[in-house]
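User: Sequence recovery, please. Input:
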């Protein structure tokens, strides 16, 4: 007999590093989710930009079931056919020539940062070890990745943190020029900052970052954990910037919810992770790789990618129409289906109120900090779900504004 759980069970058995809502989802199909009470939600959150093909996609379900009858796990002392097929497809779709598989974006970034330092060590020496990242960035939760990430709240209480890491304001090339030097081994950036407020890189800024890296013999690392695998309307966002990184990381949508991450790079750079220098017990798991291969076969089509651009326009038009009525946003921005709506100054700090009330209205959304509403739905969300979800979001705004006006 399956034991029944409630929200209170979390407080009894889990470490309190999360604060989940009372919603207990039990089923999902496409862009809709149902909780254990039978309430239906339209999903504009996508599991934080993960379920890019929605819930229970039949092709992915079949891929998982078929693989479950074959192999669940292989150690890295054997040749792994599903991992090699996936790696081949990733290299065919990108600048990359070599792939390392992990289980998450944080692990992929950990590998990327270690590789950047190891490559500099091999080709220059230990003095070339500094990494420059950007304030408001997010790269994972390991001690190394939170230190590279530009949000001090994630390192507080865990010091001493790894050294040799500097931070710069995003989209500020002059500040970066003052920080970069011949000691810099890598500059790490998100093409569009997700957790930091859904802030896209300026095209000229991205190009100048590439030029600075080249001038100082530093590697350019793109964290595309959130922006990659079709999220922005191209398979990876770097394709729209006209800039090619040296190392790229991917996860989230890559497995549509099944844990998988990848670090992509060139043959020359990859050679610094020689035998024994890095590893992952579950990285390249056959089940994960089979599912990820099915994901990229679907997302990497013109139909899906062009559909992302069309859906972006529907969302932006809908948000602007809502804003014309209620004047709640001072900026609506983003790329593809990673969209941020920044609250006006009068509503600063109230993102959590919109987040909570949207669930009451049967809509799942995200925030990116206290002032930005973030939307990251399925890339194939039906247009009727977009329309219905925006109606629920408008109702959310009405309730929140009415509630705040009475306080």
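Assistant: Recovered sequence (407 residues):
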């Amino acid at each position: 007999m399956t034991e029944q759980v409630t929200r209170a069970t979390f407080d009894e058995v889990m470490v309190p590093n999360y604060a989940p809502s009372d919603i207990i989802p039990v089923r999902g199909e496409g862009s809709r989710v149902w909780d254990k009470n039978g309430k239906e939600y339209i999903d504009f959150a996508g599991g934080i930009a993960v379920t890019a093909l929605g819930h229970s996609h039949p092709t992915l379900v079949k891929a998982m079931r078929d693989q479950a009858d074959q192999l669940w796990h292989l150690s890295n002392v054997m040749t792994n056919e599903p991992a090699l097929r996936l790696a081949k497809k990733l290299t065919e779709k990108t600048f990359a020539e070599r792939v390392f598989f992990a289980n998450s974006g944080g692990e992929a970034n950990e590998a990327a940062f270690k590789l950047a330092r190891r490559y500099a060590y091999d080709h220059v020496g230990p003095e070339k070890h500094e990494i420059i990242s950007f304030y408001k960035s997010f790269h994972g939760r390991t001690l190394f990745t939170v230190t590279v990430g530009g949000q001090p709240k994630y390192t507080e209480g865990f010091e001493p943190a790894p050294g040799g890491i500097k931070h710069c304001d995003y989209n500020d090339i002059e500040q970066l020029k003052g920080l970069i030097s011949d000691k810099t081994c890598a500059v790490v950036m998100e093409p569009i900052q997700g957790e930091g407020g859904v802030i896209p890189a300026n095209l000229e800024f991205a190009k100048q970052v590439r030029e600075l890296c080249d001038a100082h013999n530093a590697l350019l690392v793109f964290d595309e954990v959130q922006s990659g695998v079709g999220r922005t309307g191209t398979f990876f966002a770097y394709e729209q910037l006209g800039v090619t990184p040296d190392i790229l990381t991917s996860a989230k949508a890559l497995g549509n919810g099944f844990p998988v991450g990848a670090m992509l790079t060139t043959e020359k750079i990859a050679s610094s992770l020689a035998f024994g220098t890095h590893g992952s017990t579950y990285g390249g798991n056959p089940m994960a790789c089979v599912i990820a291969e099915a994901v990229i076969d679907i997302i990497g089509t013109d139909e899906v990618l062009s559909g992302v651009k069309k859906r972006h326009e529907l969302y932006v038009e809908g948000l602007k129409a809502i804003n014309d009525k209620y004047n709640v946003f001072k900026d609506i921005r983003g790329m593809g289906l990673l969209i941020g709506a920044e609250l006006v100054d009068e509503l600063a700090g109230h993102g959590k109120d919109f987040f909570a009330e949207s669930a009451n209205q049967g809509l799942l959304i995200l925030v990116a900090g206290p002032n930005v509403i973030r939307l990251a739905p399925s890339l194939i969300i039906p247009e009727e779900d977009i329309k219905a979800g925006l109606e629920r979001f408008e109702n959310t705004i009405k309730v929140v504004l009415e509630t705040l006006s009475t306080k």
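The radius of gyration is 21 Å.
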